[in-house]
Specification:
Largest sheet of chain B: 7 strands, mixed
Strand content of chain C: under 5%
Largest interface: A-C, 46 and 47 residues
Number of domains of chain C: 1
CATH architecture of chain C: Orthogonal Bundle
Helix content of chain C: over 70%
Number of helices of chain B: 17
Structural class of chain C: mainly alpha
Number of strands of chain C: 0
Order of helices and strands of chain C: HHHHHHHHHHHHHH
Number of helices of chain C: 14
Distance between the termini of chain C: 65 Å
Oligomer: heterotrimer
Distance between the termini of chain B: 61 Å
Radius of gyration of chain C: 19 Å
Amino acid sequence: MRFQIERRVEPSSFMRFAAPVYATFSTLVVGSIMFALLGHNPADTLFAFFITPLMTINGISEWLLKASPLILIGCGLAIGFRANVWNIGAEGQLVIGAVCASGVGLFYPDPESALLLPLMVIAGMAGGMAWAAIPAFLRARMNTNEILVTLMMTYIATLLLSLLVHGPWRDPDGYNYPQTALLPDAALFELFDPMYRLNTSIFITIVAVFAMWFFTERSFFGYKMSVGGAAPLAARYAGFKQSGSIWMGLLISGGVAGIAGMAEAAGPLGQLSAQISPGYGFAAIIVAFIGRLHAVGIVLGGLLLSLLYLGGEAVQLSLGLPSALTSIFQGMLLFFLLASDFLIFYRFTPFPKPIKSGVT
Amino acid sequence: MTPRLELRHICKRYPGVIANDDVSLSVMPGEIHAVLGENGAGKSTLMKIIYGAIRADEGEMVFDGNPIASHGPSISRALGIEMVYQHFALFESISVVENIALSVSGKFDLTALANRVRDVSIKYGLPIDPHRFVCNLSVGERQRVEIVRCLLQMPKLLILDEPTSVLAPQAVTKLFETLRQLAAEGCSILYISHKLDEVQVLCDSATVLRNGLITGTAKPKQSTPIELARMMVGADLPETHLDPSTTSDTPFLNVDHLTAPSDDPFGVSLNDVLLSVFGGEVVGIAGISGNGQAELISFLSGEVLFKGADTITLDGKDVGQLDAGHRRERGLAFVPEERLGRGAVPPHHLSDNAMLTGHRLGMVKHWMIQRGKANDFAAQIIRKFNVKTTGYESAANSLSGGNLQKFIVGREIELGPKVLIISQPTWGVDVGAAAFIRQALIDLSRTGAAVLIISEELDELFEVCDRLHVICQGQLSKSLDRKNTNVEEVGLLMTGLKSNPNSNIGEAV
Amino acid sequence: MDLFIAIFTGTIIAATPLIFAALGELVVEKSGVLNLGIEGMMLVGAAVGVWVSYAGLPMPLAIMSAAAAGALASLLFGVLALTFLTNQYAAGLSLAIFGTGVSAFIGKGFGSAPLDALIPLEIPFLTEIPVIGPLFFNYDPLVYFSFIMFGLISWFLYKTKAGLVVRTIGESPESSHAIGYPVIKIRYLAVMFGGAMAGLGGAYLSLAYTPLWVENMTAGKGWISLALVVFAAWRPARVLFGAWLFGSMTIFQLQGQALGISLPSEVLSSLPYIATIVVLVIISRNWQFLALNFPTSLAKPFRPAE
């Protein structure tokens, strides 16, 4: 029986929820095949990848610790994506946020001040926003595509970071490693428990999730941005300014990326180093997509991607599998999700047989 | 004599609608056969099936006595079937001869082809220069290219889909001469139209479609327009009634010597446009598309800002620098030609779409959306304007063209505007909805609002408007009183405005 | 003079991977498709090239494998964008991410064992001419091949019927389909061609430019190639010019000391990225200039109505 593709009359709400499930499932299937090809038992490896990391309290702490920046940045990016503002450079904004925050942390005259941490949060946010303001300006005033500009700015940001940690900011007692001195205690987020690395920065993420939900579902500006993303001519027809969406989309996502960067430096790392982020800015893009650009989905997506990071590290240690597996899984997940989305708008129907021989 | 083309029990279904339902017809060699029907009757789908661009779900096609087993555009061309689309399949970025080269097989030799093009175009009275780029051609010239492309293949069956919607009345006469010449040479012609008067003049026979079904066949020269119309519509054509009105003292919308050179290399520059629309009247602008309407509309709606002071005024106040949103606050409403993508956001539901311009009716408080008010407003529009939909939760792109247009028109009218501008109000809309919309526009004007209609359909303008202008190559004619003019005069103005410099509006009103 | 020769030849060599990737993407975009995944495809090509070379197989085979790998990778994007009608930006990004991951995966365990690199061809007699010789006749075969590809692509797009078809599909796939051309099939071919070219570009980096494998060794050249296509206003000759411009930026970094520039190496390394931004801004301001060559249907999903 041959099948043909037919457009649905109304998009399928069932598929909207089912697509991420299908995508996850397909990723697991292909992942199992990969494990088998590499000479490992698929079931055991899947278990080691996805279940084992969550079996200890430390594991849960790490899971939430990694999920927090992913969700935070994902929320910001989603606001922009809904308006067709494509910030691909969250990684760079994260780095600059970390740099600015660390600068405040390292050089603020009173290293025991209670103001230090809040100032660093502000510095991180401001840094990320400033870094995103450049592509925003270029797009709003000069019609320059933000995808490439934000990407180029990411490479520049990484180079700037390298310059600082190899040069003027390098810790003189650090054995020549490209990293700064440790940040003072007042500059660090408080841990929930000294045994685990999860810290109070997770509250920022929780607030951000609620704020994002509110903004996209209830605010008029959020509505205007979604019109701009879905039908730019309709936005112009209605008098909604495109530049507003562009600035909002980029500044919000840049700002939260900056805060996430600050949280890395003031959290698990405790200092600024050349490896400030394992690619959170890019992984958050996937989180935003998997989460269907909605707050609840982004939380789930962030938890899923965090698990991918943990799993990758776990099987690297226990089974000697390459750490690149994590990014392969990330890419596969996004790929299958995009493919599954197709079924929201189209479906396969059996190809009708012509009654007489004639027109085929 | 064997029929040139026979269709037997053709069926085509799309999700939610049957486009062609058991359609059978036959066309003899040398016959000019009309396929009549209103918008949405299934004519274009049927033609695409004949041409092979779409596959039928059921049914059979027989050409010159031979059944067609498998089909496609290249098979059509091999058989001698050629089609001139309503919206031409021409590429703007290349020349005429390159366009034609895409459709002919054989060696890729542009010089030889250019000579053939020139010869054929002259032979049939449609001269064109093969090396001009299509982007520089007028709409009428582009149609010539399409027809010449078909003629080069020496077709046995030529299909024309609504060919006169882009032509001024004089060009239509020329086209008919060409078609008669072709038919005399033995070529069959399938002529798709909803214009009864043209079909009566040109066609030997007619098949009438309504909602995908054949409702009758006729010999147009022997039938009356009423009989044909009844077959097309199923009832007598609804009539609009035009009550007399009193107009306001000062114009609600005034355009004073608007001149605007176009930035776009393919756009039209506007030249010294003068226009006044008073409250209580309906004014129309007639013209073939591509003569500056889109540019003028964008200036009036606020989608493009205009720098000159006091050139565009709304109720006496200069609005040239205000964007569309602010103009709505001053009492302007606007229904654009493009419904999905400009007048409505396709994936959004109707409640959101109601907010698109309706939000200033109290749906936003403290920067937050008042969802209840938006729902109510959408429901009100749906009810008052007879929009067939499951509710305000349905997506805009799930509505049929006519229903979406009713929704958009309804939304703008429910804003209670002082001035309503509407472009191509009933294009692609079924007859019932079209009559409803036209009456709604008239009724709006009789409540005291100023209504401006831009349309290509002269019949519609003559039915609805109190006064008419014609736009041609960026210039607007002086105002014509509907009662004192006719289609011929307007048709002349649509083609040759250069000899009629536009003059002061004060004269006509 | 030696410095001039070094800068000149260095520019040509640095431009070569960009020329491959950008010319390939130009063809893809001319057909109306926007593939953001060039970075991923280049990395896959680079990794596969090294892999085949380490396996002891001859260089031509390594190069062809890299091209094939790029084409295969591009299919991931192709299926999403052309059959599943996904948003092309998202599909391209997924290829970029996936390709980067796959290349890292393949590349693990290469270590830094020395590689049989692709060396410049010695053309008898021509290479020995003083000055002219080293300037024009002392390159490896892939460099010459990049110029051949430039010629072939220009001829194909503007002098053949097939090229005309590709360009018109880019303008209006609906009209092309109405005439009877298999729009989706042709776009698939274009996408795979773009993938093969990107794979070649990546292979050039890992087999000739710096003959070894490093994770993420393209360092953004895939993204820069995208900018190049816009900068070139979709005309092949301007791609060459743009690639040379960017190639020269890279050389500044390498020859910085010799040129007497005493800026930190990170600043010099950021020149190509800054240049890309500047170029994009300048180009985007003058939209009319671009409009004449812009493939109107770029990045819009197309579904043939049946």
